[in-house]
Every structure is written in C-alpha cells, then in structure tokens.
Amino acid sequence: MPNKVKWMLLLLLVILKDTGPTTACSSSCSLTCDCRGSGLTSVPQDLPANIVRLDLRDNVIATLRQSDFLKYRYVTYLHLGDNKISVIESNTFSNLTSLTELYLYQNQLASLPADAFAGLGHLQRLELYHNKLSALPNDIFNGLGHLQRLDLYQNELTSLSADIFNGLDNLTVLDMYQNELRSLPADIFAGLGKLHELWLGQNELASLSSVIFVGLGNLRELWLGQNKLPSLPANVFQGLHNVTSLHLDNNQLTSLPADAFEGLASLEWLDLHWNDISSIEAGAFSGTPQLQHLDLEYNNISTIAANAFVNLPRLQELLMSHNKISTFPAEALLNIDISSLTDLQIEDNEMKTLPPTAYDILASITNISIGNNPWQCDCGMVSFRQRMKGAFAFERQITCDGPSDLQGKNLQQDVGLEDFICEQTTINPYLANRSTVSLLQLGKTENNASGRSSLPIFVRPLLAAVAGTLFVCAFIFSVIYFWILRGPQKKSPLGQSVVYNQTTSTVSVVNNGGNQPYTYSRLDE
Q1: Which residue in 474, 452, 472, 476 sits closest to 464, CA to CA?
Q2: Tally of helices (H runs) and strands (E runs) in the chain
Q3: Average pLDDT over the chain, rounded to whole?
Q4: Is-above-0.85 flag for pTM?
C-alpha cells in the first residue's frame, strides 16, 4: 500500500509540472521570462516587474489590453506570435516605452486601431505578418521614427494611403509580400531614403508609376515577382544604383525595351522567369554591367538579337530553358566574356541544329544543360558532329529527334558520320531538267575498282558539274557541225555557194556569177 501511494504522488507531481507555471514563466524568473506554449489565455501578471524580455508565443491569448503591460515598463523584447489575438485595444503598448522588438505574427488580426502602437518611440522591429489585415489607418505608424524593420507580408491588404509610411526615416526593410495590393501611390515610398530591402512580390500590381522608386538610392533588394505587370515604365529604375538583386519573375512582361534596366549599375541578380517575353532586343541589359545571374526561363523567347548581351563582362549564369528558341544564339553569346560564364541552361527549346561555332562556346562553359531539343541529325549537324570527341558532358545531352531512323539515339555515342543522310535537289541550267541526288552518305569510305578510296564529298558535285558542262558543249558543237553539213546552200563570204553532195561525197563551190563549180572530195577519202 505505501508503494502505491508513493507512485500516485509521483504521478501527481509530473502532472502539476506539465500543467502548472514553470520557473521560466513564474515569479521566480529573472530578467527573461519564457512562457512559450504554456496554454495561457491572457498575459500573466505574476511575473517580476523588472523583466526585460517576455516571450508569450504559441499560446491562446485572444485579446490584448492596456492593463496587460502596465506592470512591465522595462520590457524591450515582447513576443506574442502564434496566438489567437484578434483584438488589440487602443494604447495597449503605450507603457512599454523601452520596447525595441514587437512580434505579433500569425494571429487573427483583421484590423488595428490608429493608436495601437502609440508610445513605442524606440521600437526598431515590428512583425505583423500572417494575419488578416485588409486595411491600415493612415497614421498607424506615426511616432515610430526608430523603426528599422516592418513586416506586413501574408495579409489581405488591397490598398495603402500615400502617407502611410511618413516619418519612418530609419526603415531599412519593408516587407509587403503576399498581399492583394492592386496599385500603389506614386510617392508612397518618399522619405524612405535608408531602405535596403523592399518586398512587393505576390500581389496584384498591374502597373507602376515611373517615379515610384525615386529617392531610394540606398535600396539593395527589390522584389516585384508574382504580380501582373505587363510592361515596365521607362526609367522606372533610374537612380537605384545600389540595387544588387531585382526580381520580376511571374509577371506578364512581353518585351524588354533597350532602356528597361537603365540606372541599375550595381545589379548582380536579375530574375525574369515565367513571363511572356518573346524576344531579347539589342542592348536590353546594357545598363547592368555588374550582372552575374540572368534568369529568362519559362518565357516565349524565340529570337535573340546579336547584341542582346553586350556590356555583361561579369555574367556567370545565363538561364534560358523552356522557351521557343529555334536557333542557337552563337552570335549573342560571343558578345559575352565566355571565360566568366560558368552556367548556361538552354534545354527544352526548339533548336534543331548546332553550328560549328557552338562547339567552342559550349566547350568553354563548365555547366551546360542543352537537352530536350528537337535535334535533327542530318547534314546541318555534320560539322558539329565532326568536332565531338566525347570530352565534354554536354556532348552526351544531344539526342536525335530526327530523321526517324536515328530518333532517340545519342549524337555522340550512337551516330557516326556514315549514318548521316542528306537530300539535295539540283537543276541543270542547260537542259532545265530537274534531278535529285538523295541518300548521299556523308563521310563514308568506299572502295572503287582500283581499290582506292572514293573522292571527298565536296569534290563529287564539282566533278559532276564539270562533266555536265563538257557534255553540253560537245552536244552543241555536234548540232552546229551537222547543221552546216546538212543545211541548205549558204553564201560564202566571197559571194560563192557551198554545196555538199551526199551521194558523191563531194563539196562544190559555185560562183554566183555563173562560173563552173569547183569540186572537192571529202577529206577522209
């Protein structure tokens, strides 16, 4: 019996330990009170008054009142993330004048009073992401002059007033990613001269003012991906000379004007994948001499101008997969410093052949993806195939899509020069008789009657042309010869007639004046 009681008491202690207040979240905690995951429904009032860090995340608190924090005036760090907060009353944090970090993310906030953050003059970080905010009072951030980071992403904001960020002169990070913003006032970012990161991705933006980024000279990262932008205003990035990363992926851009990226002198990373761009014009990236990463994947690019990539001496990664490129852009790539380019992705396009110059370009790049193109292993690929020795990985990525007898075969491993079949059509200019030369096996060695190798392929048509010319000349000469011999009387230059008698095989010369003819025998008698 005593043992049984002993075990029951031990079990009770364990239960009390798990459900009751812990040392970390009780009157005995020191300057830091960790009350995470304690099942709290309200802010505890039995903590030391001098605490400076209070962690209340992962509880079930639903409402915050001003009285909740009157006791804790020295708190500098307050974490209320992952609760059920749907209501924050006016002046709730006004007594926390030393607060520098406030976390309210992943709650159920649908609205905030205009004075929700009144009194937080020293606040440097405010995180409100993953709530249900659809609007913000115009002056909600008034008095937060020391704020450096403001996270508003993953809410339901549809619009913002032009002066919403007035007074936030020290803001360095502004995150409004994944909202429902359809437009932005032209001067909404005015005064944010210290901003380093601006996140506007995954919204509904369909247009931008050409002056919306004016004054953001210290900006480093600009995220505009996953919007609905069909075009970019001229000079919209002018003055952003410190931006190193620009994301425009998943928009509806159809073209890139030559001055689209003017002003981005420090840009190193440019993401344009998943747009509707159909061509790359000359000088499209000439304003980005520091560019190292260019992503153009998943567009509709079919043509690339020869000067599309000029002034990109530091480009290292060029991604152009999943487009409609039908011609290998050898000329455009030759305008890049190939010694700097380390990664070229150009698979899943519509290229059918590779020029000989492509081999040297591809051989100079470390990482190549060139597969899944409809390669035609015919005469157009002979010169490229002759260069292949199996020394580079890209050679094993070229699989024939045609002709049918070579479909599915690897160009380098399975196809020899003797397998190439070409069809040519030639027209005899003299006889105007069309003839076709087909099934010409390129590079194949044959033995003739004397046991010597056949002539090189390029000599054969030349000899055929010479032989044809000689045949035509002989034919014309024969026609003229027999026409002279069989023809009617013709006057000689001296006024005489020349008559050929086929029966007697003699030639008579008759003077037109009536003299007797001179008769000559055939020369071969």
Answers
A1: 472
A2: 5, 27
A3: 84
A4: no
Q: Which residue has the tokens 């609205």?
A: 111
SS3 of 119, please?
Answer: coil
The 3-class SS string of 27-64 reads: CCCCCEEECCCCCCCCCCCCCCCCCCEEECCCCCCCEE
**Prior bond to 403 cis, omega within 30?**
yes
Residue 511 forms part of a structural domain = yes
- Residue 94, both tokens: 């006004």
Tokens of 448: 């003739």
pLDDT value for 505: 44
Q: Which helix (H) or strand (E) holds 479?
A: helix 459-486
- Cα-Cα end-to-end distance for the chain: 154
What is the tens place of the pLDDT at every residue in 57-112?
A: 999 999 999 999 999 999 999 999 999 999 999 999 999 999 999 999 999 999 99
Q: Does 207 fall in a domain? A: no
Q: In a 3-state reduction of DSSP, which class is residue 153?
A: coil
Report how many domains make up the chain: 1
AA identity, residue 149: R
Residues 182, 84: Cα–Cα separation, whole Å: 29
Question: 328-366 burial string, b = 16+ CB within 10 Å, else e?
Answer: bbbbbbebbebeebeebbbbbbebbbbeeebbebbeebe
Could you tell me which residues are beta bridge partners of residue 77? 53, 101
504 assigned to some structural domain:
yes
CA–CA gap between residue 169 and residue 143 (Å, rounded): 11
Q: Which domain holds residue 495?
A: 491-525
Average pLDDT of the residues in 422-449: 40
